[in-house]
Amino acid sequence: MRKTIVSLVLILVLTAFSVSAEPVAPPAIPTRYSEQIQTISLQYGLNPRFVQAVIWKESRFVATARGKHGEIGLMQLKMDTIRDWAKAHKRSVPSAASVYDPELNLHIGIWRLDQALRHWEGYPEQVQLALFEYNAGRKSILRRLAHCGGDIHLLLQTYRSGSYAAQILDKYAEYSRLEETAIEIAQF
Questions:
Q1: What tens digit of pLDDT does each residue of 96-136 get?
Q2: Is 59 left (phi over 0), alpha (psi -120 to 50) or beta?
Q3: Structural domains of the chain in order of their starting residue, each with its CATH number
């Protein structure tokens, strides 16, 4: 009886510490929607890897993603952003259903990202501020900046969007390293 219990305990311990036979996939640059991302990003002068990092954070490349506050698609667009895009491009406001289309979603989202980057041009923290704006909205970032007495560093440390930006920049760095490695291997 004692031998049986010891054997069972040993089996349980070994099972708990065993390594899964499933291989873990190495990190890779997502290929889903990559042609569209490449084309539209370059139209706005943005690095496609940067845009992919934003999409990774926003929706994990799921075109049908719906956010807690009604954000839509790959780039998690809010209706205010969609209306702003339509007004800027002198077009009718697309329906929420049509914004799930990856091509349209990417056009609007990349346009919005470009607008945020242009707004903060000249600031050393341009990219972080633009990502904060993309995530929380321009009115929100300006209100929070006033609350922080105009201290951009305090703003980025105090609010959750600072972490949001850091996660995107980390993913962008990862994608950039992977792309460099792929280029080096291709040249070999």
A1: 999 999 999 999 999 999 999 999 999 999 999 999 999 99
A2: alpha
A3: 34-187 (1.10.530.10)
